[in-house]
Amino acid sequence: MKKLSVLATSILLSGSIAVASLPVQANLPFSVSGQQLPSLAPMLEKVTPGVVLISVTGTHEDKSKVPEAFKFFFGNPEQNQTRKREFRGLGSGVIIDAAQGYIVTNNHVINEADEIQITLKDGRQITAKKIGSDASSDIALLQIDAEDLIEVALADSDDIRVGDFAVAIGSPFGLGQTVTSGIISALGRSGLNAQNYEDFIQTDAAINSGNSGGALINLHGKLVGINTAILGPNGGNVGIGFAIPSNMVDNIVKQLIEFGEVRRGVLGVLGRSVNGEIAKALELESSQGGFIEQVVADSAAADAGIEAGDVITKVNGKVVKTFAAIRGKIGSIGAGKSVELTVIKKDGSEKTYDVTLKKQETPKVEAASIHRMLDGAELQNSTNGQGIDIKSVEEESPAAAIGLQRGDVISGINRTRIKSIGELRSYLNDNKGVFALNIVRGNSTLFLMIR
């Protein structure tokens, strides 16, 4: 941050001098030995009008609750007040349908926004409305009413390869539209947030704050991904950026247009990525795919005949390298839709299944019946079978008092791994005393005490 501040200051103080001293022809020669140098400019001139700046304003509640241990010093907790604070944010978006005015961006860019303003490359500013959003895939769909829009065509992200050239377009730090280039560094990345549907494209094209929701395009000017996250110290770019594949974006957007929400289909399996040990034990030719550890009774997988011990190697004819990739692809397909799965059976034979996905059930659980201090929290088993999602928390409830928040995930208790509501209930029934809930909150882990 110090280096950035110094740089910004130097630009402000000496910008006019620097600009005046630049030579008119301070660029690469147009040709060498009569051959025109390769340039991205012709392609970008057609594509960049399809990438927009998104400005949001909104309010969120600032709950300044006094922790239980400090109430003696700060007085009656009823005196605590909930204040509303205004926030502003910047991001990017991509026009994917010019006729309908549809713009795709990240959910985290527009989440809780009261007003969403779109700035086109030609300078026009237009208020957008939200068609729908999906926090689990971090995709949101907006719509504007405007003429002469330019859309960016979607590529088939299953066809991209590591080493392909890629270009990132967005508005980092609110500076205005910026283009950076690099290559596809890796495919099928996951693990940034275990509760989300992840199958990221990794790129070394520079992505910074404000690029979220922007375009990752190929050299044909087609969208291969929506820029979403970076991995680096203090949120700075170190050449590790992640984008949501265009095929996942396409599947999610179609559902948002049709339903205003994502109605996910569920396969009904638990598993892990195939590693060297599993591949050796099962005598597999490759350490890729998803090893099925458990098949849920009466699930789509069970109905189709998929069994524990099977290995899923392809989804709709496309090779999948990890279990997270399988989850990501299945998670973007709607309930009632069919998916073709290529599976290596326990006897080593290969079989293809046509599976009709079932609706994701979200039964509500009376949290107070599990523990009195969880009263007021809506609990739901995580779709990946690795914890308990906190879907909502009522204000002034016991659950709010201990510090639970919407979006938290209970992953353990007293250093014991907890994968479901049933396991949590059983543990609390079998034990007494003080319990430390292991909570995953975003990229952080913390403990909350109940007794």
TrEMBL record:
Substrate binds at residues 108, 138, 210-212, 267-271. It comes from the Bacteria. GO terms for molecular function: serine-type endopeptidase activity. GO terms for cellular component: periplasmic space. Keywords: Hydrolase, Periplasm, Protease, Repeat, Serine protease, Signal. The active site is at residues 108, 138, 212. InterPro entries: PDZ (IPR001478), PDZ_6 (IPR041489), PDZ_sf (IPR036034), Pept_S1C_Do (IPR011782), Peptidase_S1_PA (IPR009003), Peptidase_S1C (IPR001940). PROSITE patterns: PDZ. Gene3D superfamilies: 2.30.42.10, 2.40.10.120. One of its GO terms (biological process) is proteolysis. The keyword Transcription regulation does not apply. It is found in: Periplasm. Residues 256-347, 354-443 form the PDZ domain. Its main location: periplasm. Residues 1-26 form the signal peptide. Belongs to the peptidase S1C family. NCBIfam families: degP_htrA_DO. This is Do family serine endopeptidase. It comes from Colwellia hornerae.
